[in-house]
Design a protein that fits this description.
single chain, 347 residues, alpha+beta, Rossmann fold, OB fold (Dihydrolipoamide Acetyltransferase, E2P), 2 domains, six-stranded mixed beta sheet, five-stranded antiparallel beta sheet, 9 helices, 33% strand
């Protein structure tokens, strides 16, 4: 797989505040790359800079081997789908989708425009809506139209700015599956930015974790989930969030400030720091020290327990087999020693 789009050392500031800080990202041919980060991470500014709506302070944007950093937006041939649907409310679906094809300089025949619009509508299962006004559409239908308006242009790169955020949970889940299938079918590279870790894990060929304008880690979803480079990345992925426990090292074991043993330490973990333990890597029973369940969340196929244990508040994910867990029940949590992530910084 070869690199199609290369972002090198991209920097952008507003009023002296750095929003993008030496961002390096590569997008491969036919790849769906997810940029994951919280609000304020610089995700939207990153996309706007890619499209040419913002000019970078420094850095390069290289598309198929050609430096396009200073090209005008129209010349870059990127298509951007926004978080809000941005449809013309009194126009029909057909008019909204055909609008980018009627831009000055395209000189497309009416028959060619019609063919492209109907092809995209068929792909997105909205052919029946072509004569309907945008104000008569549901949220999911409006987002399909916005995506349709994006793909009719057959751009070189798709850019998606949290396009599913304003939809309800069930619709988000179904549409993200459809978006992945659509990207695979078209074979067009896509950069998809989101704050939703479920979207990142389920959609991305690779994930870029962005925080305060900096790229913290890039890798396959499983790599970033299982081997985060620091606690900031570790918190970004996983539901419920990873347990982060301050611990001291002593004679091959991790202990609390009061001297209670938490788990065994491995050979490459020999200094005090922060332990990262995913909720699914803690057993409900088998440990040495008692904990008290304070909250039980029924997630359908499994339970999430919030437990007071050795001065920590930890989350444990467990199945429903056996006894039913209730608040105030006593349990003996046991950490899987082989799954501990070690971070040298203290929280």
């Amino acid at each position: 797989m070869s690199t199609f789009l290369e972002i090198k050392n991209l920097t952008k500031s507003f009023d002296g505040e750095v929003v993008l800080d030496s961002v390096d990202i590569e997008l491969n041919d036919n790849e769906l790359l997810v940029v994951l980060g919280p609000t304020g991470a610089g995700k939207t500014t990153f996309l706007r800079t890619l499209t040419g709506l913002e000019s970078p302070d420094s850095g390069q944007i290289i598309l198929a081997g050609e430096d396009i950093t200073n090209w005008p937006p129209a010349q870059r041939d990127f298509s951007l789908v926004f978080q809000n649907f941005s449809l013309y409310p009194n126009w029909t679906v057909y008019d909204n989708m055909s609008f980018p094809l009627k831009a000055p300089g395209r000189n497309m025949a009416k028959s060619e425009i019609d063919e492209k619009v109907r092809w995209a509508a068929e792909l997105l299962d909205i052919s029946r809506l072509l004569d309907r006004k945008a104000t008569q559409l549901s949220g999911g239908e409006m987002q399909r139209v916005a995506i349709g308006r994006c793909i009719v242009r057959t751009p070189r790169v798709f850019l998606m700015d949290e396009p599913l955020t304003n939809l309800d949970a069930k619709l988000r889940e179904s549409l993200r599956v459809e978006l992945v299938a659509l990207q695979r079918k078209l074979g067009t590279p896509m950069i998809y930015v989101t704050h939703d870790q479920a979207e990142a894990l389920s959609m991305g060929d690779r994930i870029v974790v962005l925080s305060e304008g900096k790229v913290l880690q890039t890798g396959l979803p499983t790599e970033v989930y299982q081997n985060p480079v620091n606690t900031i990345v570790a918190r970004q992925l996983g539901h419920p969030q990873i347990n982060l426990l301050d611990a001291d090292y002593k004679e091959g074991a991790w202990i609390t400030a009061s001297g209670d043993k938490i788990a065994n330490a491995s050979e490459n973990q020999s200094e005090s720091g922060v332990l990262g333990i995913r909720p699914e890597d803690i057993a409900v029973d088998g440990g040495e020290h008692e904990g008290t369940i304070t909250v039980v969340e029924d997630m359908g196929p499994h339970l999430i327990l919030l437990v007071d244990w050795l001065g920590y508040h930890i989350h444990i994910t467990c199945g429903k087999e056996g006894s039913i867990h209730k608040p105030q029940d006593k349990i003996f949590p046991k950490i899987n020693d082989n799954k501990i992530l070690y971070f040298p910084e203290r929280s």
